[in-house]
Structures are given as structure tokens and as C-alpha cells.
Write a structure and sequence with these properties.
globular; alpha+beta; ten-stranded antiparallel sheet; two-stranded antiparallel ribbon; 6 helices; Lipoprotein
């Protein structure tokens, strides 16, 4: 009975620190996060925390999906609560009774296969080693951000969006229209309202090395031949020696 109560409390605490945006669950916290950053995600004392550890070097742009949704009461409350940690945070003029609401932007990694290829590339060997050695790191796969109206207008004018790594260990969002780059949006930490976390799935290469095979929502299981955790099976000789 006690265990059931503990589980129920944990579920309630987790729900208090999440919100739905476009039918997807997002977490919110005072942690500084960045789309594509890799680190440790925890729920401690009823608070979400994310501690960044690394960023993959991207030699190729990664396609992202961008959506624009109106603010609601809960999102506005979350955004205002983050202001106490940052006095420079841009104010949002949300009035629930008005028909036209301020808008929120969601940015989600779309080209998962492309990001997997980047992580497994030779130029990210140290990152892959960190992932295989720890096996507890996760990825910020989506953000909900509060952007100025002029930047939202630029997003609406574009027809494709990419996560780009044109500066050392710094990501930006590149906007394209008809195959040509039209602008760049820099996501400042103070504009972030909430985020989604994803986990890594693993598979063994023909050479016997473990590589990232997929990236899935943290609540989803790895599918097919991919594994949630790296496991090294002992051969018969090892078992005999024991």
C-alpha cells in the first residue's frame, strides 16, 4: 500500500511540473536548456532540472519543425514564474478576455536520423564515448519559446527550418525560403518556456561498437533491434573461467 502511495505522489509531482502544448507534454523549470543539448534530466523535490553536459558538433544542418500556438493561462503563469530568475525577461501582454492572444513558438527536432548520423560521426567520438560510458544522458529534443512578433513573422515567411552549428558550441535556427537562407534566429535562454526530453536507443555495429540507433521520447521504449541500455554478454570462455 505504501509503495502505491509513493508512486501516486511521484506521478502527481511530475504532472505539476508539466504542461500540454499541441497535445504533447512539456516540462518547465528554471534550468538553462538549449535545443539539441545533451545532459542529465531529473525530477527532484517536485522540480524539473536539466544539467547540460555536451553539444554535438554539427557539420550538417538538422531539419526542425516549427509551430506557432496561442498562449493560455497556464503557459502565461509558467512564463511569468520564470521571470523571478531573470529580470531581463521580455514581458508578454497576455489578457485572457481578449480574443487575440500572444503566440508561443514550438521548435522540435524533425530529422532524427540526421542527428543520429552526426552523433555517430568521427568528429563526435568524444561525445559518443561520454554517452556509452554514462548511459544516463538525454537530449533536449523540443522547446517552447516566447519570441518577439517580428521573429514570428520571419518564421511564417519561411518554408523550412534547420538547427545549425555555425559558431563554436553554439546552435542557431536557420530559416529558408525556396531553398535559400533568409534569416537566423538565436534562441536566448530567457525566452524558453518549456522543453521536451528524449532518450537514446543503441545498436551494435558490424565491428562490434555500440552506436546511437534512434532518439525517442523519454517515455517511449526503443523498438526493433535497438536497445534501451548497452549490454555486454559474456562469452562461454568467460563464463567457464568464472
Amino acid at each position: 500500500m505504501f509503495k502505491k502511495v509513493v508512486v501516486l505522489i511521484l506521478i502527481i509531482c511530475s504532472a505539476c511540473q508539466t504542461t500540454k502544448i499541441k497535445n504533447d507534454n512539456y516540462k518547465f523549470s528554471s534550468s538553462v536548456v538549449e535545443l539539441g543539448s545533451i545532459g542529465t534530466s531529473k525530477l527532484s523535490y517536485n522540480l524539473n532540472t536539466f544539467e547540460p553536459k555536451a553539444l554535438a558538433k554539427l557539420e550538417n544542418n538538422i531539419r526542425v519543425e516549427i509551430g506557432v500556438v496561442p498562449y493560455n493561462k497556464k503557459l502565461n503563469k509558467i512564463y511569468k514564474s520564470k521571470a523571478k530568475y531573470n529580470q531581463n525577461q521580455t514581458k508578454v501582454a497576455f489578457i485572457d478576455s481578449l480574443p487575440i492572444k500572444p503566440e508561443l513558438v514550438t521548435i522540435k527536432i524533425l530529422d532524427v536520423a540526421g542527428l543520429v548520423d552526426e552523433i555517430n560521426a568521427d568528429y563526435n567520438a568524444s561525445l559518443l564515448k561520454l554517452l556509452t560510458d554514462t548511459q544516463n544522458l538525454q537530449l533536449i529534443s523540443s522547446l517552447a519559446v516566447s519570441l518577439p512578433t517580428d521573429e514570428i513573422a520571419k518564421i511564417r515567411q519561411a518554408d523550412a527550418y534547420y538547427l545549425a552549428n555555425n559558431q563554436y558550441k553554439k546552435y542557431t535556427i536557420a530559416l529558408y525560403k525556396a531553398g535559400k537562407k533568409t534569416d537566423i534566429i538565436d534562441i536566448n535562454p530567457e525566452t524558453i518556456v518549456a522543453y521536451q526530453v528524449s532518450s537514446f536507443c543503441w545498436t551494435k555495429s558490424v565491428k562490434g561498437h555500440w552506436n546511437v540507433a534512434d532518439i525517442v521520447n523519454e517515455n517511449d521504449r526503443c523498438t526493433g533491434i535497438t536497445k534501451q541500455k548497452i549490454s555486454e554478454k559474456k562469452n562461454n570462455k568467460d563464463l567457464f573461467d568464472l
